[in-house]
């Protein structure tokens, strides 16, 4: 008897990944495509990996979010899996952080994600099936100097996910959080060598994460194999934030 891979998906399931134009989101979209999903990827630029339906949508704009869902539903079908990955940083020490820095990060990372989740669950509830994964960060629970706005937004996602898990668990919908540590992408390329060295010294795995490390965790949480996992926070951080 040959064992089947439980993280491979019944053909044709539709997944939408936000922030799929580069970095972690592009890797997740590619991973889900390889697992057998039909995948749409949104971002402001609308770029997406080969084979992924690229849709331009700024998640801070309710009309663009609605239009993106309409396009995905028309071209691929109703969204059964949502990976809310889009996020930004605007780092600044607290005393110098402007209201704009705060509002901008919260508007994208927290409110934008809320908007995507609310829209996606409409159909998931009718279908009595859904997988939602929210992209948080180790900064949500260990904190990070210069990232008061970012850490607050990412901690908010944990509360959001657990509330969604409680509200919709009876409808076959799971909602989980992935909390990456330091992953090599454009977002972390911006950091100084000093900050990078400090992280490396604190990571038990003694390496930075790769985008595929995160994509593998997301693939599992989206799969049928993870049907009894909900409201969980899965760190993908080489041990950086363990114990919290
Ligand atoms: N890299 C890390 O070490 C790390 C660690 C912990 C958590 N994370 C989280 O993982 C996620 C992905 O990070 P990354 O490193 O891959 O970042 P990235 O390379 O900067 O990519 C961010 C993605 O989000 C999209 N995006 C940004 N603002 C958007 C908006 N308003 N509407 C729609 N799309 C938007 C970007 O596309 P456009 O610019 O085209 O819109 C891009 O596709 C983020 O939520 C980040 O906070 C990353």
UniProtKB/TrEMBL annotation:
Record bears the keyword NADP: yes
Residues annotated as catalytic: 150 (proton acceptor)
InterPro entries (alphabetical): 3oxo_ACP_reduc (IPR011284), KR_dom (IPR057326), NAD(P)-bd_dom_sf (IPR036291), Sc_DH/Rdtase_CS (IPR020904), SDR (IPR050259), SDR_fam (IPR002347)
Pathways per UniProt: Lipid metabolism; fatty acid biosynthesis
Residues the record lists as binding NADP(+): 19-22, 85, 150-154, 183
UniProt-listed Gene3D superfamilies: NAD(P)-binding Rossmann-like Domain
Residue span(s) of domain Ketoreductase: 13-186
Reactions it catalyzes: a (3R)-hydroxyacyl-[ACP] + NADP(+) = a 3-oxoacyl-[ACP] + NADPH + H(+)
GO MF assignments: 3-oxoacyl-[acyl-carrier-protein] reductase (NADPH) activity; NAD binding
Keywords from the named record: Fatty acid biosynthesis, Fatty acid metabolism, Lipid biosynthesis, Lipid metabolism, NADP, Oxidoreductase
Family annotation (Pfam families): adh_short_C2
Biological process, per Gene Ontology: fatty acid biosynthetic process
The protein's Enzyme Commission number: 1.1.1.100
Quaternary structure note: Homotetramer.
Protein family: Belongs to the short-chain dehydrogenases/reductases (SDR) family.
Record function comment: Catalyzes the NADPH-dependent reduction of beta-ketoacyl-ACP substrates to beta-hydroxyacyl-ACP products, the first reductive step in the elongation cycle of fatty acid biosynthesis.
Protein name: 3-oxoacyl-[acyl-carrier-protein] reductase
Recorded name of the encoding gene: fabG
């Amino acid at each position: 008897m040959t064992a089947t891979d439980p993280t491979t998906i019944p053909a044709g399931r539709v997944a939408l990944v936000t922030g799929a134009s580069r970095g972690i989101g592009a890797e997740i979209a590619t991973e889900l495509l390889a697992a057998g999903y039909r995948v749409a990827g949104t971002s402001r630029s609308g770029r997406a990996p080969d084979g992924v339906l690229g849709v331009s949508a700024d998640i801070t704009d309710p009309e663009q979010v609605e239009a993106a869902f309409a396009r995905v539903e028309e071209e691929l079908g109703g969204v059964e899996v949502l990976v809310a990955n889009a996020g930004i940083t605007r780092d600044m020490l607290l005393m110098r952080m402007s209201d704009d820095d705060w509002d901008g990060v919260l508007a994208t990372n927290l409110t934008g994600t809320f908007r995507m989740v609310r829209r996606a669950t409409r159909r998931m509830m009718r279908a009595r099936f859904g997988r939602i994964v929210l992209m948080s960060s180790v900064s949500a629970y260990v904190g990070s100097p210069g990232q008061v706005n970012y850490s607050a937004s990412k901690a908010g996602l944990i509360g959001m996910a657990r509330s969604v898990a409680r509200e919709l668990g009876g409808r076959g919908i799971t909602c989980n959080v992935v909390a990456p540590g330091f992953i090599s992408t454009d977002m972390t390329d911006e950091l100084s060598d000093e900050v990078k060295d400090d992280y490396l010294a604190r990571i038990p795995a003694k390496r930075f994460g790769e985008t595929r490390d995160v994509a593998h965790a997301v693939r599992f949480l989206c799969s049928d194999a993870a049907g009894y996992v909900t409201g969980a926070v899965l760190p993908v951080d080489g041990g950086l934030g363990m114990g919290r």
